[in-house]
Every structure is written in structure tokens, then in C-alpha cells.
From TrEMBL:
Record gene name: uppS
Enzyme class: transferase
Active site: 16, 64 (proton acceptor)
Cofactors named for this entry: Mg(2+)
Catalytic reactions on record: 8 isopentenyl diphosphate + (2E,6E)-farnesyl diphosphate = di-trans,octa-cis-undecaprenyl diphosphate + 8 diphosphate
Pfam families documented for this protein: Prenyltransf (PF01255)
Molecular function in Gene Ontology: ditrans,polycis-undecaprenyl-diphosphate synthase [(2E,6E)-farnesyl-diphosphate specific] activity; magnesium ion binding
UniProt binding sites for substrate: 17-21, 29, 33, 61-63, 65, 67, 184, 190-192
Protein name, entry field: Ditrans,polycis-undecaprenyl-diphosphate synthase ((2E,6E)-farnesyl-diphosphate specific)
Chain residues that bind Mg(2+): 16, 203
Length: 237
């Protein structure tokens, strides 16, 4: 499979089904999140092998704070654990790590590790790995609007300069290629406030497979679905 020939550069994944995976096995939901972390590592490795340029993973939405308090605490602990444990490997494999979302709501310790991890990998030239944490598409668009208003007030930007490309530069995904393929596991068929601006012309792939069970073969099937699509971007072939 030649990724360059099929113009697949940016894949975004809504990793859904961790909690249900655990509950189906009579386990607590947090164990599902830990199992899902193993899947994340496999998908990242496969993306590197296939020379995918950008992988964006939806880890924690702005709405996820509404979950039971203990589950949220465990998710934060898992995020911190993952950064501590994997940052050496991330750097070793030339991955550039970006955390997109409102990190101000995180603990001081977690924010420090996020900052350090991004700094350590900032000059890497391989896979760009975006982790969407405390992220919401509406939040991102509103933040972008606020930044534009400030730029206009300072005299750095004119209203006449605001085009789609210019607006994109004020989002968390600034300077990244548009999303080509969105994958959602877990059986739900909705976007859930994920990358609302960036996925305007993305292909959408939904599967009933719960995230911890999502394999490399399943990932390849999603890519084959993308290959089968005729992308017209509003034009007529």
C-alpha cells in the first residue's frame, strides 16, 4: 500500500468503546482505558510504517468532564503515565508530539509534562502525533475567533484578510494538512464535537469494533475504505 499515491496524509480517530469493552468483561471501566492505550501504541507504530504524515487521536473531550469523578481522575493519571513512559520512544521514533485542547484545566504536574514532551519532540520530522485532550471543536473555533479579534484590535490583522486559510491559522491544528479520513470505533455514528472545521471534506468511517479490539487489520480496512471513495470536493468528475 503506497500512502503517497492515494493522497492519504492526515488520519483522525475517535477512540470510542474503552469503558464498554471493560464492562462486557465484568471489569471496571478504567481497565478498558488502559487496554485502549495498548491499541494506541499499535496504531502509532503502523502509521509510522506506512509513512502517514499526521495522526490525530481524540483522547478526552471537553464533555468528558461530566463522567464519574473517579473515571476522570484515572484518565488523567493514565495520560500522565503515558507521557512519562513513552516520551523516550516517541522521540526515538522521530515523532513530533502535539497536545491540542485546553490544557489550562489540567494539573500543574500534567501541564509540565505536556510542555516538556512537546519541547523535546518539537524538532522531530517524522509522524506528527496530535493528542486531542480536553478538546472540543466548538471550543477551538471560539478560541480562534477570540484570537482574530485581538489581532484586529492590535492592528495586526484586517477584516478583509480573513479567509478560510487565514482562519485556519488561528486553530489548534494551525499549519497542518486537512483531515483526509476520520475513523470512529465503538459503533456510534456521530462526530462528537471533533475537529469540526478540519473535517469539512473528510471521508468518515464508522465501525462497531470497540477501541481496545481495533487491530492493525481493522486499520487497514478503514484505509481501504478511503481508497474506494471518489473524492470530488464539490466538483463533478
Amino acid at each position: 500500500m503506497n500512502i503517497k499515491k492515494i493522497n492519504l496524509h492526515h488520519i483522525a480517530i475517535i477512540m470510542d468503546g474503552n469503558g464498554r469493552w471493560a464492562q462486557k468483561r465484568g471489569k471496571i471501566r478504567t481497565l478498558g482505558h488502559k487496554e485502549g492505550f495498548k491499541t494506541v501504541k499499535k496504531i502509532i507504530k503502523f502509521s509510522i510504517e506506512k509513512k502517514i504524515k499526521i495522526l490525530t487521536l481524540y483522547a478526552f473531550s471537553t464533555e468528558n468532564w461530566k463522567r464519574p469523578r473517579l473515571e476522570v481522575i484515572e484518565l488523567m493519571n493514565l495520560f500522565l503515565f503515558a507521557l512519562k513512559k513513552e516520551i523516550k520512544n516517541i522521540n526515538k521514533y522521530n515523532i513530533q508530539l502535539k497536545i491540542i485542547g485546553n490544557v489550562d484545566s489540567f494539573s500543574k504536574n500534567l501541564k509540565n509534562y505536556i510542555y516538556q514532551s512537546e519541547k523535546i519532540t518539537s524538532n522531530n520530522t517524522g509522524l506528527i502525533l496530535n493528542i486531542a485532550a480536553n478538546y472540543g471543536g466548538r471550543w477551538d473555533i471560539l478560541e480562534g475567533i477570540k484570537k482574530i479579534i485581538l489581532a484586529i484590535e492590535k492592528g495586526d490583522l484586517k477584516v478583509s484578510q480573513i479567509k478560510e486559510k487565514k482562519f485556519s491559522q488561528y486553530l489548534s491544528t494551525a499549519n497542518l494538512l486537512p483531515v483526509d479520513l476520520v475513523i470512529r470505533t465503538g459503533g456510534e455514528k456521530r462526530i462528537s464535537n471533533f475537529l469540526l472545521w478540519e473535517i469539512a471534506y473528510s471521508e468518515l468511517y464508522f465501525t462497531d469494533i470497540l477501541w481496545p479490539d481495533f487491530s492493525v487489520l481493522d486499520f487497514e480496512e478503514a484505509i481501504n475504505f478511503f481508497i474506494s471513495r471518489k473524492r470530488r470536493f464539490g466538483k463533478i468528475r
